[in-house]
Design goal:
440 residues, alpha/beta, Aldehyde Dehydrogenase, Chain A, domain 1, Aldehyde Dehydrogenase, Chain A, domain 2, seven-stranded mixed sheet, six-stranded mixed sheet, binds nicotinamide-adenine-dinucleotide
């Protein structure tokens, strides 16, 4: 029987590998990325099956949001990595006069051994995209998948050492106790994706070792719907973004803020959009997912009475099914507005105007995204200047995540730090200041 290494043993092995210097050459880094790419493309069906078992994730969502999303990130990095890693020269204009021939530049140094702790809702991409970034930056990596998606966790633990240099990657599976043991080790960076409560624990543990941390958390991402926009388009885009993965997406639109007349008109359009996407009975639709476990089911089911039901409202605990639900006339202090929903419930809140919408956004913790549907430049400008959030997205909720040139991360309660594309290289590197003054 194979006895898994203890966290301390796994970290020691990864540190030894890093010190050999083998993770530094560009060739080694691109090999790891190519390996990760082969892992997801070569095991597409197995990954989809695992995602279905853990989350009843629909096949199209498994393909798009887990496999293709990861491939896109890897391809983008493979295309640009060499250029990103070039030392960036700066003018050597110093306080004191320096001899001719002096050069100064900044370099991306790998940090060492990185810990990636992933959440269960996109258990493949939320683990592999940061792992890809950390390897591309020349680090060794300890990956900790979520125990709430156990089949995906076991599959990734088996596959990763087959496709990535097994001396440079370790996968440690397990729940609370394991993560606590892991966090007692010294890492050179930790990227954690999950709830803010445990994020605080991660940060406290990291403080012991002065380890820098990226916290990818969640929040109540609001959607402002302006007067006069095409509500059929709005409803379709909103329903797609909200009800994918049964609402269990960190950047899902959490609630809608709009004026009373627009809210009335939007109700009918949302009901139509939900039926278009999932048919008259979403419980029978292969395109609709399930809630991850009984605890989260109970939490979300308890929110269903928070307003007048426009569509949905049905649930079945045995099947962990909660229908895509739209609630109207929801009060700002209703249960559904007290915490991140993280489930398939979309409340519509009525506000008099943009000013009230902005006040509502600013009365709450800073969210991972602010969304708006508007044709008006002043509205765009005011939302940009008068609110704060991880991302700002007009017109197509969630889509900003799929652009690897854009940083992905939160602000305030939605987290700090960022990754994706070259932002991952920045996160998992040390920017080293280098000066070279001729002796002659
Ligand atoms: P989770 O339960 O899978 O926890 C995340 C990770 O932390 C897991 O690996 C888990 O083992 C560990 N963990 C959590 N609680 C722990 C504890 N008490 N002791 C030891 N280890 C613990 O996922 P979650 O926290 O339910 O994730 C949902 C939250 O994450 C939501 O708020 C969501 O918005 C956020 N999220 C953010 C992003 C993002 O990219 N910003 C992505 C997905 C989810």
């Amino acid at each position: 029987m194979n006895i898994p290494p203890t966290p301390a043993e796994a970290v020691a092995r990864l540190r030894t590998t890093f010190r050999t210097g083998r993770t530094r050459p560009l060739g080694w880094r691109t090999e790891q990325l190519t390996g990760l790419r082969a892992l997801v493309t070569g095991h597409r069906d197995e990954l989809a099956d695992a995602l279905h078992t853990d989350l009843r994730k629909p096949r199209a969502e498994a393909d798009v949001a887990e496999v293709d999303f990861t491939v896109r990130e890897i391809d983008h990095t493979l295309r640009h990595l060499e250029q990103w890693l070039h030392p960036e020269p700066v003018p050597a204009s110093a306080l004191t006069r320096l001899p001719p021939g002096t050069t100064a530049d900044t370099r991306h140094d790998p940090l060492g051994t990185v810990l990636v702790i992933a959440s269960w809702n996109y258990p493949v991409s939320l683990l592999l995209v940061p792992v890809a970034g950390a390897l591309a930056a020349g680090n060794t990596v300890l990956a900790k998948p979520s125990e709430l998606a156990p089949v995906c966790s076991a599959l990734l633990a088996r596959l990763l050492p087959q496709y990535v240099d097994p001396e440079a990657i370790a996968v440690v599976e397990g729940g609370g106790r394991t993560t606590t043991d892991l966090l007692a080790q010294r890492f050179d960076h930790i990227l954690y994706t999950g709830n803010a409560g445990f994020g605080r624990t991660v940060l406290r543990a990291a403080a012991e070792h002065l380890t820098p941390v990226t916290l990818e958390l969640g929040g109540k991402s609001p959607v402002f719907v302006d007067r006069g926009v095409d509500l059929a388009v709005v409803a379709t885009r909103l329903a797609r973004a909200k009800f994918a993965n049964a609402g269990q997406t960190c950047v899902a639109p959490d609630h809608v803020l709009t004026d009373p007349a627009t809210a009335r008109a939007l109700e009918g359009e949302l009901a139509r959009a939900v039926t278009d996407l999932y048919g008259p009975d979403p419980a029978r639709s292969p395109a609709y997912g399930r809630i991850v476990n009984g605890r989260h089911f109970d939490r979300v089911a308890a929110l269903l009475d928070s307003g007048r039901t426009v569509i949905g409202g049905r649930y079945d605990r045995a099947d962990r099914y909660i229908a895509p639900t739209v609630l109207a006339e929801v009060e700002p202090d209703a249960p559904v507005m007290r915490e991140e929903i993280f489930g398939p419930v979309l409340p519509l809140l009525e506000v008099a105007d943009l000013g009230e919408a902005i006040a509502s956004i600013n009365d709450r913790d800073r969210p991972l995204a602010v969304y708006a549907f508007t044709d008006d430049d002043t509205t765009r400008r005011r939302l940009a200047e008068e609110t704060a959030s991880g991302g700002l997205n007009f017109g197509l909720p969630i889509a900003h995540l799929g652009i690897p040139e854009l940083p992905f991360g939160g602000v305030g309660e939605s987290g700090f730090g960022r990754y994706h594309g070259r932002w991952s290289i920045d996160t998992f590197s040390h920017r080293r200041a280098c000066l070279d003054v001729p002796l002659g």
